[in-house]
Amino acid sequence: MEINVNESTRRITAESGLSWPAGLSRDRLLEAYRTMCLSRALDVRIWTLNRQGKAAIAASAQGHEAAQVATVMATDPTRDRYLIYYRQLTAMLALGTTPTEMLMQFLARDGEMLSAARQFPLHGSHPRVDLFSFSNVVGTQLPQSVGVALADKMKGRDAVTISFFGDGAASQGDCHEAMNFAGIHNVPVVFLCENNRYAISVPLSQQMPVESIASRASAYGIPGVEVDGTDIVASYEAIKEAVDRARSGDGASLVELRVERLLPHTTDDDHTRYRSAEDIEKMLELDPLPITEAMLRRHGILDDATDAEFKEAARRAVDDATDAAEAMPFPPVQDMYRGVLESDSGVKSNG
Amino acid sequence: MEINVNESTRRITAESGLSWPAGLSRDRLLEAYRTMCLSRALDVRIWTLNRQGKAAIAASAQGHEAAQVATVMATDPTRDRYLIYYRQLTAMLALGTTPTEMLMQFLARDGEMLSAARQFPLHGSHPRVDLFSFSNVVGTQLPQSVGVALADKMKGRDAVTISFFGDGAASQGDCHEAMNFAGIHNVPVVFLCENNRYAISVPLSQQMPVESIASRASAYGIPGVEVDGTDIVASYEAIKEAVDRARSGDGASLVELRVERLLPHTTDDDHTRYRSAEDIEKMLELDPLPITEAMLRRHGILDDATDAEFKEAARRAVDDATDAAEAMPFPPVQDMYRGVLESDSGVKSNG
Amino acid sequence: MAEMTLIEAVRETLREEMRRDSDIFMMGEDIGPRGGVFLASEGFVEEFGEDRIINTPLAESSIIGIALGAAVNGMRPVAEIQFADFVWPAINQLVGEAARVRYGTDGGKTAPMTVRIPYGGGVRGGLYHSQSVEVIFAHTPGLQVVAPATPYDARGLLRSAIRSNDPTVFLEHKKTYRLVRGDAPDEEYTEPIGKADVKRAGTDVSIITYGLMLHHSLQAAESVAQSDGIETEIVDLRTLRPLDAETILESVSRTGRAMIVQEDTGAVSVSSEVSAIIAQDGFFDLDAPVMRVTPPEIPPMPFSPLQEAEFVPSPERIADAIRRLAEV
Amino acid sequence: MAEMTLIEAVRETLREEMRRDSDIFMMGEDIGPRGGVFLASEGFVEEFGEDRIINTPLAESSIIGIALGAAVNGMRPVAEIQFADFVWPAINQLVGEAARVRYGTDGGKTAPMTVRIPYGGGVRGGLYHSQSVEVIFAHTPGLQVVAPATPYDARGLLRSAIRSNDPTVFLEHKKTYRLVRGDAPDEEYTEPIGKADVKRAGTDVSIITYGLMLHHSLQAAESVAQSDGIETEIVDLRTLRPLDAETILESVSRTGRAMIVQEDTGAVSVSSEVSAIIAQDGFFDLDAPVMRVTPPEIPPMPFSPLQEAEFVPSPERIADAIRRLAEV
Ligand SMILES: Cc1ncc(C[n+]2csc(CCOP(=O)(O)OP(=O)(O)O)c2C)c(N)n1
Ligand SMILES: Cc1ncc(C[n+]2csc(CCOP(=O)(O)OP(=O)(O)O)c2C)c(N)n1
Ligand SMILES: [Mg+2]
Ligand SMILES: [Mg+2]
Question: Which atom, in ligand 1's list, is nearest to the CA of A167?
């Protein structure tokens, strides 16, 4: 299947999955859908925990699930690297993070594995997969991801770096500098933009004078593709192509996944302040869960029993994870003094 | 004459001047050539003053003269605004700055009009024309120029802002952010890139993976054109088109003038360290002075007598300016305490 | 005389100034229909329109660079950096460029611009929504740096900042936005940039502070007054550049004991400068060492609640320090 | 033991480290065939190739951001910022990101990277080729900041910086590059980050300083020793973060008189912190106010020669200050 920026995203429909591209199978698709169901259930729970005053802040992945699960399917967690953004709940689950591990982040519990609860959820580094996010400063991960990939190129390793970002991040100077360097030096990175048309409340029309972010790839001499991010198969195929290109030494690509942000920016936001009723209406039709479910049923991959089983299993897993995470204490105070520098005593100092 | 990025720059030859575009006349072209001769003579003198230990630093305009004089011809100094870079000696002369005023900058003399000799030459603001350059930090002038133009748009003034930069500056994040905002808000600015293929010693191939800077205009929804900057007529026409567009409310443009940097980056540089003999050979063939002279002679605009007169006049003007500037003292010490803030006493303070 | 929160003081003052002077416009992320993430511009785009309330792309360097360009061309931009933690990409345009425009052109161009920056912690912001960023601005000649801690000062100083003809960094502590209420006149009053204010008179110890720490210090002062009869004088700096050395030294000359309380980490900070001023020009008035109460030298500030609470100097910690200093 | 200039010390040490460890590579503007604008990497691309000597586009934020990415993925990048004045666009990646990587991942990732920054004035650099930029780095937990003033220290400390597993800002004063010569062993020695060094022993006054000002202070000390018999002890900080409070306080405890000499403007600076350390922990040793000798509070520094000469604290000005302090 050929996807390019001149072709409108909507022309890539779920039917593109009629013959599975290399690497996709009925089982993998079913597994992907199971992860999406788990992500959605966990996402809903996290929002509830925030409303209960237990989780300080959350950014939801609802609407991005198909795009993220496709991204993980198109990569190799045993050797690839992931610089995530902050909305990658589904990707993290697909990469083997447990619901309890995720909830420990949102509840800032002792033993939280990414940052010892020093950082917001989804920030820090993962103990099992080479996944990390150093900061909340939008755009900084883009040059960093180029450096990560440059190191692999220098060392002759066949790892590919996935650099997650959003449409808002594309406006940062760092985005330009990162893609320009990647283009010059042919580094094995995939710039993966989950374009949900909003940077908090700022719509695309106020973010850029062009229709697509992928169209900017030509300014950096790299391929750019725009894909319907609610279409798990089309997304997989586009990302796989970019990952294969990077792995085979042909350098960077820009993949733009068009998705919808189904909830407000974060639990602190209220999108009715800036989104019209129609806009919200329209967006709800692009929920990747029913879209994926329908596609799988059309192809006879999913039946009622399995669907119900997935959803029930997800509910149970989320309940158990909530109990497990809530049972944990907050990190002890003295741990905050640990490890500013390697040479640190780790004891309290005032300068 | 249509110029676009798909067309190779070299296809726009001096012959494009056979029928003068609107706004150009034999007299204006002759005047432009006179300014180029003056600029070249002054430029040579400044280099000499550096070698004599009298001028601390200089960046030469040699090779950029036709492009710069064309830029001034295409604008209206009585209402337009110029955020210059640091290589715009010719543009400043064309805008009415005297050779003595220029030499006062290089010799840091008392009464230097741009910055009171607090800054490098060509930095500060001009007392007669709305021309300024706040800093040596490459790229910062690009967002600033967008803000300047935005103010004019807000106030409904018909001024156009000319934003000078080089190929090196195009790599800065600020360049991306500035052009993106200009594209979104349709501000009356012309991004004018004098592309001389080098950022000090870094060749284009190590600066960007694409052939032209103008080709990036599409990423910002603005027109981009690439022109032979040694062709004064083609340059004038391309810039005029962009200026007219901005003035008529149609927003920003990017004009890339392909020129050669005939001397090392600055008086501190030695380009034989990084430029091949052939490269230097080849570049010397693109000296805009003989090219412009030949073009004017071909069209019967310039004869031996006038040419000799221009060059003799330039020599005299530069000699007189040197005497005048060297006769001036350095700024007195106490002036350095003046005007950090409006509320300042202007007397020495340590905090 | 109306009672209002600090965020209300900021919003009302912005609104009044926007109505007064059509050269004023605002730029920032989400300041349009969203009204800003802290609602400082709630309802503004409806009243002033999209030309004067510009929802910018997510690009801080251009927010400041474009504001600077507009400022030197006759406008009075008020730029909002959404969180202080995100001002770093814009430091070059602010510290490198705006601060030097007047000096570097010998007054040929000036930059009458205000940059509003919500800063500070204690709001579960973690490492990137809690930072204090005043050091680099307070160090830079050509900038004015204001950090009000009360609605009254916020109103008077924001007016002065917007009307000033020099670039002014206006620091708003996020935790004080809704926590701190106070009376602020409806009149068009201004407070002078560069003047500290004695928020509590005392005879035994001088505390020099600003921002949220003013309120923690006031609580501490009350408790030690009751428990130990120690009378603490509290100097609210309000402006971090230029510092009001006169008011600081005057207070120390009467108490003989100086303590600086600050939320930002201590090394090479505003607290260092205040201490250095006293150690050089108030030395002979001192009866005791110049004490500093600051957080530990770790990146501000942990997300987990117990650690965050420990990081920020608490009224209790300040009260203990007052007692120790009074005994020296 | 070879005599060399400071720039030679930097170049030879870089070369030796590059030869020793293939994980080290360099990135920066013009560091390729040009050899860097100060020739710190002259001949390097010829020896190490374009993969390890990367001529970058003109984009400082990406230079640091990419170096950081490579550092967390097993490399030891040495990034060059061509002039300190141009580090501002990269502050976000350095202060906002690199400094917090170890802490923000609880040690899960580390950033063994060195950022070389030629800084300082007295070279006719004007407002944008003369700046001192240490303040923001010296304030930031998670960074190490080194500022050697002699070839010996440059060699020993650059080795330590490159071999350190934390991000280190390595400040090289441009004027010392060719002005300062000194002996430096050929051996692979290191000097510890975080330790100051007493460069001159004295009994009457302690000067705490660094960079070019070390040399101006040494000249001043000699002249007052001869003219007035005043013996000045000179502490070269060498590392600006973490500061070596112990050595500072030990010196002041013996002389009772402290003076900080600095090329950067004084307000909220390293000199403020040194003074504050003494005023808090060395107070009872002091016989006189803690004096600071710094430039005026104007943007560093004017291009015109007389004004530039006036801006930088001269040996004469320092000598006068020593005399005044000794008399208090
Ligand atoms: C440099 C910076 N500026 C502002 C913010 C505040 N902020 C957090 S997320 C966000 C919007 C990001 O939009 P986008 O990149 O499209 O990602 P999305 O949230 O839509 O997935 C903003 C403005 C930030 N975190 N960093
Ligand atoms: C931010 C920044 N980085 C580095 C420098 C040092 N520098 C001065 S000019 C220059 C090259 C600029 O190249 P270009 O934009 O092509 O202009 P040209 O000199 O070729 O006309 C560099 C790297 C600077 N002034 N500012
Ligand atoms: Mg978005
Ligand atoms: Mg160039």
Answer: 16
Active site residue B316: no
CA distance C142 to A319: 57
> Does residue C301 have a cis peptide bond before it, meaning omega lies within 30 degrees of 0?
yes
- The alpha-carbon gap from D36 to the nearest alpha carbon of chain B, in Å, equals 9
* C-beta neighbour count of A344 within 10 angstroms: 18
ipTM above 0.95, yes or no: yes
Q: pLDDT tens-digit profile of A181-224?
A: 999 999 999 999 999 999 999 999 999 999 999 999 999 999 99
Q: Are B140 and C97 in contact (CB under 8 A)?
A: yes
Cα(B261)–Cα(B87) distance, integer angstroms: 10
Distance, C-alpha D246 to centroid of its chain: 19
Closest approach atom of ligand 2 to CA B266: 19
pLDDT digits (tens, 9 = 90+) for C144-162: 999 999 999 999 999 999 9
| Closest-CA residue of chain B to C93 | B140
Q: What's the pLDDT at B19? A: 65
Written as six digits, the tokens of B67 are: 């492009």
Give the tokens for residue A52. Answer: 């209960």
Among D85, D61, A168, smallest CA distance to C88 is for D61
Which residue spans within chain B are E strands per DSSP?
A: 81-83, 124-125, 131-133, 161-166, 189-195, 198-199, 202-203, 224-228, 253-258
Taking a C-beta distance cutoff of 8 angstroms, is the pair A325, A103 a contact?
Answer: yes
Q: Which residues pair with C144 in a beta bridge?
A: C168
Report the distance separating Cα A330 and Cα A327, nearest Å. Answer: 10
Counting beta carbons within 10 angstroms of the beta carbon of residue C254, is it exposed (0 to 12), middle (13 to 18) or buried (19 or more)?
middle
Using a CB-CB distance cutoff of 8 angstroms, which residues of chain C are in contact with residue D279?
A: 275-276, 278-279, 289-290
Whether B202 has its CB under 8 Å from any CB of chain D: the answer is yes
Q: In angstroms, what is the C-alpha Rg of chain D? A: 19
Beta bridge partners of B81: B161
Do A116 and A335 contact (CB within 8 A), yes or no?
yes
- Shortest Cα–Cα distance, D139 to chain C (Å): 5
Q: Is D78 part of the contact surface with chain A (CB cutoff 8 Å)?
A: no
- Which residue in chain B is spatially nearest to D29 when comparing CA positions? B202
**What does the alpha-carbon distance between residue A204 and residue B321 come to, in Å, rounded to a whole number?**
55
Does residue D259 sit in helix, strand or coil? strand
Query: For residue A141, which amino acid is it?
Result: Q
Q: Residue B73, SS3?
A: helix
B131 lines ligand 2 (CB under 6 A): no
pLDDT tens by residue, A226-248: 999 999 999 999 999 999 999 99
The predicted structure's pLDDT at residue A19: 65
**C87 to chain A: closest CA residue:** A137
C34 touches chain A (CB under 8 A): yes
Is B79 in the active site? no
Tell me whether D165 touches chain B (CB under 8 Å): no
Helix axes A26-51, A65-73, angle to 10 degrees: 130
Portion 57-116 of B in contact with C at CB < 8 A: 81, 114-116
What is the rounded distance in angstroms from the CA atom of residue D175 to the CA atom of residue D173? 6
pLDDT for res A20 = 76
Quick check: is D129 catalytic?
A: yes
pLDDT value of residue D231: 98
How would residue B346 be classed by pLDDT, with cut points 50, 70 and 90?
A: low
- Reported as half-sphere exposure (CB side, CA atoms, 13 A), residue A167 has a value of 28
- pLDDT exceeds cutoff 50 at A149: yes
Whole-prediction pTM: 0.97
Chain-chain contact of C299 with A340 (C-beta, under 8 angstroms): yes
pLDDT digits (tens, 9 = 90+) for B186-234: 999 999 999 999 999 999 999 999 999 999 999 999 999 999 999 999 9
Q: Alpha-carbon distance C313 to D157, whole Å?
A: 35
Tokens 């990162």 label which residue? A178
